[in-house]
Amino acid sequence: MENNSGGMGSGEEGKSVEDLEFERLTECFLAESGSLNEVLGGLRSFHHMGESSTIVQRAMGANLNSVLGGEPSSSSAVALERESLDHDTHNKRPKVHSFSLICSDWDCQSASSDFIERGYNINQISFKNEFHCPSPALAEGHPENLIVSSSGRDNRDGCNTPQMDDMEVRMDLTDDLLHMVFSFLDHINLCRAAKVCSQWRTASAHEDFWRILNFENRSITLVQFEDMCRRYPKATQLNITGTPAIHLLAMKAISSLRNLEVLILGKGQLGETFFQELTGCHKLKNLIVNDAALGNGIQEIPIYHDQLRSLQIVKCRVLRISVRCPQLQTLSLKRSSMAHVALNCPLLRDLDIASCHKLSDAAIRSAAISCHLLESLDVSNCSCVSDETLREIALSCANLHVLNASYCQNISLESVRLPMLTVLKLHSCEGITSASMAAISYSYMLEVLELDNCSLLTSVLLDLPRLQNIRLVHCRKFIELNLRSLMLSSIKVSNCPSLQRISLTSNSLQKLVLQKQESLTSLALQCQSLREVDLTDCESLTNSICEVFSDGGGCPMLSSLILDNCESLTVVSFHSTTLVNLSLAGCRALSSLKLNCPNLENVSLDGCDHLEVASFRPVGLHSLNLGICPKLNSLHIEAAHMVLLELKGCGVLSEASINCPLLTSLDASFCSQLRDDCLSATTTSCPLIESLILMSCPSVGPEGLSSLRWLPHLTSLDLSYTFLMDLQPVFDSCVQLKVLKLQACKYLTDSSLEPLYKNGALPSLCELDLSYGTLCQSAIEKLLACCTQLTHVSLNGCVNMHDLNWGSDMAQLVIDIDLSVEQPNRLLQNLNCVGCANIKKVIIPSAARCLHLSSLNLSLSANLKEVDLACLNLCFLNLSNCCSLEILKLDCPKLTSLFLQSCNISEDAVEVAIEQCHMLETLDVRFCPKIHPVSMGRLRAACPSLKRLFSSLASI
C-alpha cells in the first residue's frame, strides 16, 4: 500500500513536530555533518521519549564517537560499556520486559521488524486482518500515523528522504550497543524508537524486550492471539484476565508458549480441560486465576503440575478442588466457593483459605494437616473453625509461624499450643478472653499479636521475650494490660473505654501513644528507650503520674511528654534531666507546677487558667508565655538561656523571682500587683534586658524606675497607663533609651518632659508616644520644635492638641527656650495625631525642615479645616473622617497614598491639591458628599499616575 488512508502524507503540512525532528536528525546522519552533540540534543528534545532520552545519551556516550566514525566497537569495548553502566545504579533503569497495553482498545502498530511493514493506521482502534501485534503507542494519547509501502519499506523510515534504501539511513551503531541501550526502554518508547530507521526497528523488536505480554481487559481474538504467540514464543509471563473466551486463549497459551512461567487469567469460564492440559506447560511456576467459574460447577477440578510453585484461585466459583503439586509452596483459595479441597503438596508453606465460607471445619482440618511443612495459615472469616482443628494443625504443622484466625467466633485457644508462632491475628474473635492469654503465653517466639475488637477480653498479662508489636483496639471490656517484652517496639491501644491499668516493660519501645483512655488511672513503665509519650485526654490520670516520668521512674531517655486535657492533674512536679518538650495544655485543674528540668526547651500551658504557683528552677527554656495564667500569684524562674518572658495579664502576680541572665525582653503588662522590689530584683539578675513593658503596672514607683540603671542595654520602655508624676528617674537611669511610651499617663505635669527639650535628656530617643495624655499645647509645641532627633511621634487623642503650625511662629518658640535659631533638619518620619478634636489647622511649610516626614495620620480630627503641607518625602497622608476639611494644599511630589474618606471637601479642592502629586497611586474619596462618582474622570485627568481610585459607588 502506498500511503494508508488517514496517513499524514508525504508533504510537510501533515507532519508532526516529532516526525520533523527525526527527519532532521536523519539528514544529519546522511550528510555526515551533524555532530554527536546535535544528535543527542535532538534526542533530548524529542519529548515523547521522556526520561529515556538521558538514558540513551548516557549509555551511548562512551562509544558513539568511534561508532559514528565508522569504527565498530569490539566485544571488549561493549563489555566495558556494560560494566560502566552497571556501576551507576542510582541513575540506570533496569531492563523493562513488561508489555502492558494502557490504551482503551487495540491500536495497530507492531514492534517487531515487520510490524511496520504490514500497512495499517495507528488511529484505528481495531486489528487489521493481516496484523496481529498490539502497540502501546496510543497509550499517551498521541494519535500518530505510520505510512508504509506495499513493497515492505517504510516511506519515511523516520527520515526526510522518500524511497531511501534502509541501509542508507541506518544509524551506524553496533547491535550490541543498541541492545544494551534499548534494554532501558519501556514498550511505548521501544515502538517509537522503531520509527527512527530499520536498524533501530529490528533492534527494538528483539524478543528479549517482549518477555511479558499483558492483554488484561483487551478484546483480542483467538486469531490475533495465535499470531502473538507465533511472534513471541519465548514469552515468560502472560496476562489474559478479562479477555473474551479466556478458556480458548489459555489453551492456546499453554500449548504455544513453552517458556511460560507466569500465567494470569480470570473474569470468565475455564473448562476442566484447561487444568488437564496444564501439565504440558512444563516451565509454569505461577498460576493466578481470579474471579472465574471453574468447570461446569459439578465435577472436581484437578490441578496437577510438577513445577508449579505458586497457585492462586481467588474469588472463584467451583465445587471441589484437588491440588497435587509436589513443588507448590504458596496456595491461596481466598473467597472461593468450594465445599471441599484435597491437597497433596508436601512442600506447601503458605496456605490462604480466608473467607471460604462453605468449607467445613473438617475440610479445613484435612487440608491443613496434610501439609506438614506449613508455615503460614490464614483461616480468617472461616466461622466454622474450632479449637480442635487448630490443635490438630498445631500438632501436624510444627513449623507454623503465622496464623490469622480473625473473625473466627468459635475459637478460644485455651487448649491450643503453638510454640513456634511468630504472628497471631485474632481480630473480632469473641471467644478470646483473659483465659486465652495462658495459651498465647506458650508462644514464646511470638513477635506480632493483634487483638482488635475482642469484646470479651478483660485483661492481658503476658511475658513474651520476642514480642515486638501488639494491637488492642475497640476492646470495650478491657481493664488491664500487663506486658513484659524487652523487644517490644510498637503498641497500639485505643478506644478501650474501661482500661484502668497499664504496666509495660521494654528495652525497645521508643514511642507510646495512649490517647483518649478516659478511665486510665495507673501507668507503670520500665522502658529504657522510651522517648515520646502522648497521654492526651486521659482524664483520670492522677498526680502520681509525675513519678513515672521523673528521673528514676523507669523512662531514663524520655524527651517529649504530652499531658493535654488531663483534667484530674492538680499538682505537677517533674524532676527530669532528659525532658525537652512538655505540654500541659487544657489541664484546667492544675494549680501548682514545679519543673526541675535543666534541658526543657518547650512548655505549653494554654488553658491552665487555675495555675497559682509556678516554679521553673532550673529549665533550658528560651522563651516562656505565662500571660494565659490569670491566677498566677507566685513565680520563680531560673533559666540560663531564656531571652523572652511574657507575663502579660498576670494581674495577681505579687511574688516574682526571675533569674535569667540572657533575658532581653520582658512583658509585664497588666501585672497590677508587681511591686518595686520585684522589679529591682529582676533588673539586677537580668542585666541584658533591652525591651521592658510595664504598661498598667500602677504599683511600680520611683524606686522601681531607679533600678533601671542596672539595665545598660535598655532601649525600649513602655510605662503607659501608669500613675507616674515624675519621669526624672527614667531620664537619669535610661541613658540609651530609644523608645518611650507614655500613653494615658494622665498624672504627668506640663513640665514633666522639660528635660527632653531643655536639658537634652535621652539623647538617643527616637520614638515617643504621648497619646491620650493631658500635656498642654505649649509643652507639646516645644517638644516638637526642639526634639529634632525624634523619628516617630504619636499624639493620638490629646485633648490639648490645637493647631499644628510649623510656620514662622516656630522660630519664636525656639528663641523662647534660649536655644539657637539655627536648628538641624528634623528627623521626624511618622507623625500620628488621630482623633485630636481641637486641631483646626495643620501647616508644615518647607521652612519647618521636615525633610524625612513620610507618614502623617490626622484621621478622626473632626474640627480640622485646613491642611497645608510642603513635605518633599511625604508618601502617606490619612485625612479620613475629618468632616470639616475644606482647604487642602499639597506640595508633596512623592505622595503615593491619600485617604479622604467622609471628608466635606469639594471636588475642585481635591483636583487642585493632587495636580502637583505626580507619584500618587491611591486616592480614597468614598463617602465624600461633595465628590460625585461621575466626576472620577476629572480626578484621573488631574493626576494621571493614579492606579487605584475609590469612590462611594465603586472602586476604579
TrEMBL record:
Transmembrane segments: none annotated. Residues 167-213 form the F-box domain. It comes from the Eukaryota. PANTHER family: F-BOX DOMAIN-CONTAINING PROTEIN, OS10G0396666 PROTEIN. This is F-box/LRR-repeat protein 15. It comes from Heracleum sosnowskyi.
